[in-house]
Structure formats: structure tokens, C-alpha cells
Write a structure and sequence with these properties.
Structural class: mainly alpha
Shape: elongated
Number of strands: 0
Order of helices and strands: HHH
Strand content: under 5%
Largest sheet: none
Distance between the termini: 18 Å
Length: 62
């Protein structure tokens, strides 16, 4: 829902937000693979919350 709102505000801001989400998922995946060997449900929930906060902070900063 947050990313959809970013696209409604501005397509440029939405594309940057999607790029940041993609980058954060890649980095978090690398971290999880090195620390615990993969994904868990708790890790997925944590990533969801962190990404949402990050997108909201990015939108409010722009």
C-alpha cells in the first residue's frame, strides 16, 4: 500500500522507492544467508516492517 501511494504522488518518487525496496531486500537476503542460512517467517515480518518505515521516511523527506 505504501508503494502504491508513492506512485500516486509521483511516478519518479515511486520508482526510486521501489528501487530502494529492491536493494534492501537484496542486502537483507545476503545478511540472512550469512547469519542463519536462509529466511524464516520472523525475518520476513521484520523485513516488511523495515521496508515500510524506510519508504515512509523516504517519501516524507522528499
Amino acid at each position: 500500500m505504501t508503494l502504491a501511494g508513492a506512485f500516486l504522488i509521483s511516478k519518479g518518487i515511486g520508482l526510486i522507492a521501489v528501487s530502494l525496496v529492491f536493494l534492501s531486500v537484496l542486502l537483507f537476503n545476503r545478511f540472512l544467508e550469512s547469519r542463519i542460512g536462509g529466511w524464516t517467517g520472523d525475518a520476513l515480518g521484520a523485513l516488511s516492517e523495515v521496508v515500510e518505515i524506510g519508504v515512509l521516511l523516504f517519501i516524507s523527506a522528499v
